[in-house]
Lipocalin-like protein (Ichthyenterobacterium magnum), 138 residues
Amino acid sequence: MKRLLFLLTSLLFINCSKNPETFIKHLNGYWEIEEVTLNDGSKKQYNYNDTIDYINVTDSLSGIRKKLKPNFEGTYKTSNNAENFKIVIENDSLNLYYSTPFTKWKETILNASQDQLLVINSNKDMYLYKRYQPIIIE
């Protein structure tokens, strides 16, 4: 419980001290989940991911997010499905509003850097992503 309180306090400090607009430039690229902290404080570590997320932001503050399956040849398998989102800065937060033919939802970017991405959803579950590094076999 103390770890969760420390993490939330740290996130609040990070959120208050950074302009959320600066996070946008770090969103583009390939991301893999490193850890999920559920709203009850329990955590799940991800040592291996068979899928990664590809995020592409356009100049109009919208973009897409796709699930990709990397392979050892350095390419990716994917379906034609993509989740469209709009970026909205409100209440000093960077929010992504997703829309598919089936549902709509919101995620808030708590922190984004060159190497890490921290996202919280409406269930208060936090997802920590790291920049995807492909496995190179020579």
